[in-house]
Specification:
There is one protein chain. The protein is built from ten helices and ten strands. The chain has helices at 45-57, 79-96, 108-116, 133-140, 165-183, 202-210, 212-216, 230-236, 244-256, 267-280, and strands spanning 10-12, 17-19, 24-30, 62-66, 101-104, 121-124, 143-147, 190-193, 223-225, 261-264. β6 (121-124), α4 (133-140) and β7 form a beta-alpha-beta unit. It has a single domain, classed as Dihydropteroate synthase-like (TIM Barrel, Alpha-Beta Barrel). It binds ligand YH5. Ligand YH5 binds at residues 36-37, 70-71, 104, 123, 125, 145, 147, 193, 195-197, 223, 225, 228-230, 240, 263.
Length: 283
């Protein structure tokens, strides 16, 4: 048995607990007009909710809603604009489904309004680095995903350098966990994420992925987000619409290595992957 790590994880959120004893699929909803892979589709809240509800039917366990693209070169979004994009989506989705909702944002104002509108998880690619972000987690009792990123979205892919990418990521995540714990956030509120594609070359991403178990061994539920990313596109030399199989292959390995949440665009097939790999892991 490869499990050094507890396998009966429960994630404490503001108003409920999410069982992470089996791997879960987080479906991606971009409430962003400028987003990379589905820009233009979810232009209004109703359409975004429609897509989210389809993902729920397709087997999503969590819906991740983001209103600001983190890709290099994307426009900065004001607090007001981001609120306008995501809050109606969260409110309508919350009124039509009990699905756990996560809010993909780095802004404390958006985190707070999102949890008040019914979001359960704060998914922060900057790991609560904005002043006041930690207080939102404390005051709301929401769960938080702490992700590693080197640099800032605008410039992170310019020339990422590490002497030891896995060591650096682990060190950073441990420091962010300590920051949370010292502030009074519970260990059972925390998810960790190595941050594939965030200030990392393709080689860094594969190096880190190959060592995913060392991040799982930290003892917190691990989220993996590789869906459609350039670590797939680069190896396959294929555009975003043709990266599905590559993403599913990595999702399978991530689950086998102990990841608990797979963030993905293709919910149907990712849910199938989780099921068969979970079955395999019983033997
Ligand atoms: C993540 O890994 N990623 S937004 C570029 C793509 C396709 C997709 C070139 N938010 C993560 O999904 N939150 C994003 O094609 C995230 N972990 C967590 N926790 C970037 C993204 C994407 C970028």
């Amino acid at each position: 048995m490869p499990f050094l790590v507890k396998n009966n994880m429960k994630l404490k959120c503001a108003t409920r607990t999410i069982d992470l004893s089996t791997p879960k699929v987080m479906g991606i909803i971009n409430a962003t007009p400028d987003s990379f892979s589905d820009g233009g589709f979810n232009l209004n809240a109703e359409k975004a909710v429609e897509s989210a509800l389809q993902m729920v039917k397709d087997g999503a366990d969590i819906i991740d809603i983001g209103g600001e693209s983190s890709r290099p070169g994307a426009d900065n979004v004001s607090v007001e604009e981001e609120l306008n994009r995501v809050i109606p989506v969260i409110k309508i989705l919350r009124s039509s489904s009990t699905i756990p909702i996560s809010i993909d944002t780095v802004k404390p104002e958006v985190m707070k309004a999102a949890v008040e509108a019914g979001a359960d998880i704060i998914n922060d690619i900057s790991a609560l680095s904005a002043p006041g972000a930690i207080n939102v987690v404390l005051q709301t009792g929401a769960a938080v995903c702490l992700m590693h990123m080197q640099g800032k979205p605008h410039t992170m892919q310019d020339n990422p350098v590490y002497s030891d990418v896995t060591g650096d990521v682990i060190h950073y995540l441990q420091q962010r966990v300590e920051f949370c714990m010292k502030s009074g956030i519970g260990a059972n509120q925390i998810i960790l994420d190595p941050g594939f594609g965030f200030g990392k070359t393709v080689e860094h991403n594969y190096h880190l992925f190959a060592k995913l178990e060392s991040i799982v061994d930290l003892g917190y539920p691990v989220l993996v987000g590789v869906s459609r990313k350039s670590m797939i596109g680069n190896v396959l030399d294929k555009p975003v619409q043709q990266r599905g199989a590559g993403g599913l292959a990595l999702a399978a390995i991530a689950v086998k290595m102990g990841a608990k949440i797979i963030r993905a665009h293709d919910v149907v097939h990712t849910a199938d992957v989780c099921k068969v790999i979970l079955e395999l892991m019983k033997y």
